[in-house]
């Protein structure tokens, strides 16, 4: 069997299709425009406006399903956020938010939440609130200066995708083994992360099928990698890996291994690998 090359990666999950917005829904970019169509406005993008606070009038748009207030100067979110009970998708990225209001727990339909790049955010307090959101399927905490992941994260049992890139933690809490619905996990750009020590926790997240450990200064694919029995897509892009261990052949469900931008030699004929496995290299490896 010859190693296959795979150059196009299609994201494992596409969440937006489940948000309930129609393909022809109008996307409003100002409050004044949105209010002209207040009864049917479901999509509002107020990103990159230099906002320091959200206008009270925003919370009168009770039909909103998609709200983006990312890349502003917000230090907090109004308690009135709980009035937007139809929200499915909320972007709070790239602000200076420190705490979330307790009223966020009223967003029972919220599916995707972006809290990334709020470096002063109280992660533990935030997660304790998010535990009360029964439909929260996607959460981004990238770039939040997390040095220790709180054990409360394991209570986010509905999560399907978790983004933890650009942080500084070394270990995943054992409570993450309770996250049976988690399928996609990103741990990129975290040179502190010890892949070897975390194999046990990762292997016991029973539904985990897509794992990203990219640009983490890994020198090797750790011994015991075959413990990841449910993983189908493994991304190890941009590390210092120089060898592809035979143990990869024991990962019977693995369909794609992306080891682009690693100092690997050209791939060799290998009969131990599954014929279903695609290995993605780049020109540095070929």
How far is the N terminus from the C terminus? 18 Å
Residue share in helix: under 10%
| Total beta strands | 11
The outline comes out as: elongated
Could you spell the SSE succession in H and E letters? HEEEEHEEEHEEEE
Placed side by side, the strands forming the largest sheet appear as: 1-2-3-4-5-6-7-8-9-10-11
Return residue spans where pLDDT drops below 50 for at least 5 consecutive residues.
1-24
Give the radius of gyration: 21 Å
Q: Major β-sheet, in short?
A: 11 strands, parallel
The name CATH uses for the topology of the largest domain is: Leucine-rich repeat, LRR (right-handed beta-alpha superhelix)
Task: Describe the protein.
The chain has 286 residues and is mostly loops. The chain folds into two domains: 121 residues, Leucine-rich repeat, LRR (right-handed beta-alpha superhelix), CATH 3.80.10; 116 residues, Ribonuclease Inhibitor (Leucine-rich repeat, LRR (right-handed beta-alpha superhelix)). Helix content is 7%, strand content 12%. It is built from three helices and eleven strands. Strands 1-2-3-4-5-6-7-8-9-10-11 form an eleven-stranded parallel sheet, with no helix packed on it. The protein is elongated, with a radius of gyration of 21 Å. The N terminus is likely disordered.
């Amino acid at each position: 069997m010859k190693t296959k090359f795979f150059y196009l990666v299609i994201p494992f999950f596409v969440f937006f299709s489940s948000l309930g917005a129609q393909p022809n829904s109008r996307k409003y970019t100002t409050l004044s425009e949105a209010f002209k169509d207040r009864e049917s406005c479901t999509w509002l993008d107020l990103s990159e406006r230099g906002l320091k606070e959200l206008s009270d009038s925003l919370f009168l748009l009770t039909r909103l399903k998609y709200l983006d207030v990312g890349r502003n100067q917000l230090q907090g979110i109004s308690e009135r956020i709980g009035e937007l009970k139809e929200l499915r998708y909320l972007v709070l990225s790239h602000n200076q938010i420190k705490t979330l209001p307790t009223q966020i727990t009223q967003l029972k339909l919220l599916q995707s939440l972006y809290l990334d790049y709020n470096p002063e955010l109280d992660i533990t307090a935030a997660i304790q609130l998010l535990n009360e959101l029964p439909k929260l399927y996607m959460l981004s905490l990238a770039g939040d200066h997390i040095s220790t992941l709180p054990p409360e994260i394991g209570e986010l049992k509905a999560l399907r995708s978790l983004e933890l890139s650009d942080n500084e933690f070394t270990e995943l809490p054992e409570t993450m083994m309770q996250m049976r619905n988690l399928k996609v996990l990103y741990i990129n750009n975290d040179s502190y992360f010890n892949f070897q020590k975390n194999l046990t926790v990762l292997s016991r997240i029973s539904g985990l099928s897509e794992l990203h450990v990219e640009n983490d200064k890994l020198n090797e694919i750790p011994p015991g990698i075959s413990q990841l029995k449910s993983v189908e897509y493994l991304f190890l892009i941009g590390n210092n890996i120089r060898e592809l261990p035979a143990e990869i052949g024991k990962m019977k469900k693995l369909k794609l291994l992306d080891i682009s931008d690693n100092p690997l030699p050209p791939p060799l004929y290998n009969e131990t690998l599954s014929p279903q496995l695609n290995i993605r290299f780049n020109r540095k490896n070929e």
